[in-house]
Amino acid sequence: MKKILSGIAIAQLLTIQLQAAENKNFNYHVDEFADIEVLRYEVPAFNDLSLRQKMLTYYLTRAGEAGRDIIWDQNGKYNLPLRTVLEYIYTNPDLDRNSKDFKAFEKYIKQVWFGNGVYHHYSNDKFSPEFSREFFESQYDLIPSSALPSIEGMSAPEVKEILMKVVFDPEFMPKKVSQDSSTDVVLASSGNLYEGVTQKEVEDYYNALKDPNDATPISYGLNSRLVKKDGKIQEEVYHLNGLYGPAIAKIIYWLDMAKGVAENDAQKDYITKLIDYYVTGDLRLFDEYSILWSEDTNSDVDFVNGFIESYNDPLGMTGSWESYVNFKNREASARTEAISGNAQWFEDHSPVNPAFRKPEVKGVSAKVITASYLAGDAFPSTAIGINLPNANWIRAAHGSKSVTLENITEAYALASIGNGFNEEFVIDQPTIDIMDKYLYITDMLHTDLHECLGHASGRLNPGVDQDALKEHGATLEEARADLFALYYLPDAKLLELGVLDNPDAYKAEYYKYMLNGLMTQLNRIEPGKDVEEAHMRNRQLIAKWVLEKGKKDKVMELVKKNGKTYVKINDYKKMRSLIGDLLAEIQRIKSEGDYEAGNALVQKYAVKIDPKLHKEVLERYAKLNIPPYRGFINPVYNLVKDDKGEVIDVTLDYTESYPEQMLRLSRDNSNL
Ligand code: ZN
Question: Which of 28, 59, 257, 370: disulfide with 415, CB 3.0–4.6 Å?
Fold first, then answer.
C-alpha cells in the first residue's frame, strides 16, 4: 500500500526548513505542462554511503530502469508502439518547433511520458490531443518503415490506423481503470490486465483457485494478465519465459549484479529469492521473498522491485510493476522508530471492537528513507510513504516494513513556498498560523502513522476473504489507515514519545485534511465527473461523513465569507471522537468482509460532488496557478573509473531535462 500526497498538502514549512532551503540553492523546478509540474529531488547524504553501497544503489537503479516498458504495456496495450511513433516525431530535427501543432504535440508527449502511457496517472482518463490529425498523419508518414513499430498480427497500415484511433478517438479505450460499480468494471477498464473476459469470469476464475481454509493464501492474479483465447480463460504469467520475459531478463541481470555487492547475507537471500520468483513467476516464492524482505531491517540500502500495488486493476488483484531504491535516513528514523516501537500500545488503545484488534502486533518496522531512484508505476508520480508487503497474512504473521520518503516530501514542500494556497483557502489567520508552524511535522507524522500503524492494524475474522470488499477494498483500506493516523495525532502519547511538542499541533493536520477532503482536492477533477481514485474517495468519505455526523453539534461547517466557501471547524475534540467512530465502523466492515455496508458508505459519501462547490474550487485554484499534480525525474547515476577501469565512485548529476531523461530511458531500455 502507498500513501500519496494529498493535493498540495504541504504548502507551508517550519521556519528552520525555510532557512535551510534558502541556503541550499537546489533547483527543484524542472518542467510544467497541462496540469503537471515536474520537479527533481535531491539525494542528500549519498556521498556518505560506502563505495559498495553506492555500487549496490547503482545496480538497483539499473534494475529499475530495465522494467520501464512493463508498466507502459500494463497501462495500455498500444502504449509502447505509440511511444515509438511519438518520440520519432518529437526528435525529428526538421520540425518547426514554434508551430502551434508542435507546441500542442509537445504538451501531449510530455503528458504521455508522465502517464507511462495515454492515460492520466490519477484520473485514468485518456489524454486529448490538441494538435491536428493532419499534423500527426503527415509526420507519421515520414517515419521510415525500419523505424515503425510493429504489432503482432497487424499490417503497417493497420498499426497506423489503430494508433490514430488511440490518439484521436475519445470513445476508443477511454479510461485506464473504471470504478463505476454500475458497470462491468473489467470491461469498462482499458488497461492491459485483462483481455476478452468479463468481471464475472475473472471473479469466478480466481474464486475457483482460492482455498478459503488456506492460512497462507496466495495473492492470485498479482503477476498475470487474464485472457480468453479460443474460448478458454488462461493466465499469462509475468516471468522470465512468459509475458514481459525480455524486460524481466534485464531486471534479473542487474539484480544479480546487486546481489554481488549486497550489504549482508539477509539481503543477499532476499535478492536471490526475488530472482527465483522472476525466473519462475511462482507466487509462493514471491511470498517467501516478501517475508525475507520485511524481516531485513539491518541493511541501509533497500529497494522494491516487482508487481506490487494493485490500484490499476479495477478488481485490485494484478500488481503494477514498480521500483523504489532508497537508503535509510538514520537521524529522521528516530521519529518513526519511536512510533513503531509502541505499535502494540497503539493497537491496544484503538477505538475499534477489541475482537478486531491484533492481540500481538508483529514486527512493524518503520524507517525514514532517502529515495534514490523511482521507476515503473512509482515514476514520475510517486508516493510519499509505502507499507509493504501487501499480503494480509504476511503482515499478520511476519509484520511489515513501512517507509516515509522524506526527501520527496521535502522537495514537494520546498517547491511550494509562497504559492498563496493557504491565503486563498484557509479560513482565518490563527488557522494559517498553526498550519505554518505545525503542518509539516504533523503531515509527516500522519504519513508515519498511516503507513506503519494504520495499514498494519486490525485483523480479519477467520474465513473472511481478503478481497471481500471487492472494488471498494482500496478506498476502505486507505480510509482505515488515514482514520487510524487522524485518531492518534491528538493523542498525548505523541507528546510523551517526544515526536510533538504542542498538544494543539494536530489541528493543523485536521484542518488541512478536512479542507482537502471537502474542497481543495476537487481541483483534480474535471467538471461533471465523479471522484474515482481510491485515496481521493477515502478522503472525501471521511470528511463528508464527519461533516454530516457532526452537523447537530456544529463540529464542522461550510461557511460563506465574501461569497467564498470556507471550512470552519468549531470543535476539534468532538471531531476526534467522530473519527474514532468511523474508524471502528470501517474496521468492522473490513474484519467481517461486509461488502454491502462498505458499498453503502462509499456510494453515499465518497463519490458524488456538489457541482457548484466544484466550480468554485476550480475557479479559485485557477487564479493561484498551482499545477494540481506533481512528479519527479531522477538524478543520473554515473560511474567514475580510474585508469585501470576500476570503479572508484558513483556520482549524481541533476542537470538532465525532462524530455532528455524520457528519451534516454527509451533509448537505453526499450526491452519489450
Ligand atoms: Zn495507504
Answer: 28
